[in-house]
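Example S7 (structure tokens).
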């Protein structure tokens, strides 16, 4: 069904709007998910009008100029720390009498601004118009800060109206892997300590932190990647599918995440690529041992996963970009000879694929763009492929526990374009992937 919606974007001058949301809005219009009478309100502190704002969006991506010009975008200057700006926005919204089926607030800002935005919505009486809210990671800095964010969000929005995006869930290979797990028993039965020796979640990038260095300097790989994307991938591959069918995906993921037990910190490895020091110097930041590489080991207390080794690895300035899941099967099992002892790879990047004899299902992906797909699900009120409050509480518990022991974790400075020092790595470190 084509809908007439209004999407109000806080933080509309940032990279997320330029790189992700604009193409997503374009595909939603082209697919007819939203109609031409929809409204996109872009909010920011800069002195733009709607025309100069569109020019600004087109500067970095001139190939998107025609798309940008076609979108129903109106720019409104707003400083989230100025209450009068929210009252002005509320008045503008009140004058718009078009019959929107959905009004969506999109918080494309740092989590540090969430309280100011929500308080602005409350005190300007804009809450009379609220519908749904979409949030981007990071969801806080630790469990305590996330709880504070959650409490203020729930002052305005009920849980079913809060959509916490993790775009890894929307990736083609992940969607197809989940479909395979839920509908193909021969694959799903491998997720058991009867057959599974270990599972590794890998997300390697060739690039460094780039213009995100100030954010990364305070955050690091553990919170930037492991806390959200990689724990989500882990929960999707290892959750109990029968429990998911009975109680839903969010409860199945929550139960799995609550079962995770970090191993001793001496088995982990943190690292930092060598040119990070120079990047700090250029930007005037004091150098510190923030990790651009993180590898952690976990175990699960769930009966069917007891004894299965779990490894999560992510790094910047790696030899090549790769995202995937590795399932190492046991030699001493009753599995068919063709897969006994083998490593089954679910490859997410550079292509969506899986090791033989399995095949990813040939299901049609309605949207090419991950964000277009996720926004369509927001419009349709389907929160299945978003992250629940309980999942985040559980994942932050794991990260907080690991961070308490961070001083005991081995740390390696590694050359750009290479893996951390072999001498620093714990046993079981995977130095290559196929």
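Recovered sequence:
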């Amino acid at each position: 069904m084509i809908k007439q919606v209004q999407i109000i974007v806080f933080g509309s001058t940032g990279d997320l709007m330029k790189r992700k949301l604009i193409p997503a809005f374009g595909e939603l219009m082209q697919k007819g998910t939203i109609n031409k009478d929809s409204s996109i309100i872009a909010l920011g502190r800069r002195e733009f009008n709607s025309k100069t704002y569109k020019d600004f969006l087109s500067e970095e991506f001139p190939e998107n100029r025609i798309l940008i010009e076609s979108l129903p975008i109106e720019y409104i200057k707003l400083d989230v720390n100025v209450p009068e700006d929210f009252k002005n926005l509320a008045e503008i919204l009140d004058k718009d009498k078009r019959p929107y089926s959905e009004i969506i607030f999109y918080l494309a800002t740092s989590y540090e601004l969430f309280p100011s935005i929500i308080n602005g919505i409350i005190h300007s009486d804009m809450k009379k118009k609220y519908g749904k809210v979409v949030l981007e990671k990071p969801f806080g800095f630790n469990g305590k800060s996330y709880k504070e964010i959650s409490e203020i969000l729930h002052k305005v929005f009920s849980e079913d109206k809060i959509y916490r995006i993790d775009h890894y869930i929307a990736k083609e290979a992940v969607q197809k892997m989940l479909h395979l797990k839920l509908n193909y028993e021969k694959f799903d039965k491998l997720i058991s300590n009867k057959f599974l020796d270990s599972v590794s979640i890998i997300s390697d990038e060739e690039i460094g932190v780039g213009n995100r260095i100030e954010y990364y300097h305070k955050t690091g790989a553990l919170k930037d990647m492991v806390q959200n994307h990689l724990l989500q991938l882990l929960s999707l591959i290892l959750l109990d599918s029968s429990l998911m069918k009975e109680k839903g995906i969010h409860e199945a993921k929550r139960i799995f995440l609550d079962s995770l037990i970090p191993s001793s910190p001496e088995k982990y490895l943190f690292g930092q690529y060598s040119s990070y020091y120079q990047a700090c110097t250029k930007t005037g930041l004091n150098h510190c041992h923030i990790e651009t590489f993180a590898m952690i080991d976990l175990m699960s207390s769930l009966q069917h996963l007891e004894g299965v080794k779990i490894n999560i690895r992510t790094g910047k300035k790696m030899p090549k970009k790769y995202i995937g899941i590795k399932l190492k099967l046991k030699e001493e099992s009753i599995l068919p000879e063709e897969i006994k002892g083998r490593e089954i790879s679910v490859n997410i990047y550079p292509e969506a694929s899986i090791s033989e004899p399995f095949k990813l299902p040939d299901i049609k992906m309605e949207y090419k763009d991950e964000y277009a797909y996720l926004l369509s699900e927001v419009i349709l009120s389907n929160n299945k492929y978003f992250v629940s409050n309980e999942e985040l509480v559980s994942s932050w518990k794991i990260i907080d526990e690991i961070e308490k022991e961070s001083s005991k974790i081995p740390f390696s400075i590694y050359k750009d374009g290479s893996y951390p020092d072999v001498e620093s790595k714990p046993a079981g470190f995977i130095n290559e992937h196929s």
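Notes on this example. Confidence is low (pLDDT under 50) at residues 424-434.
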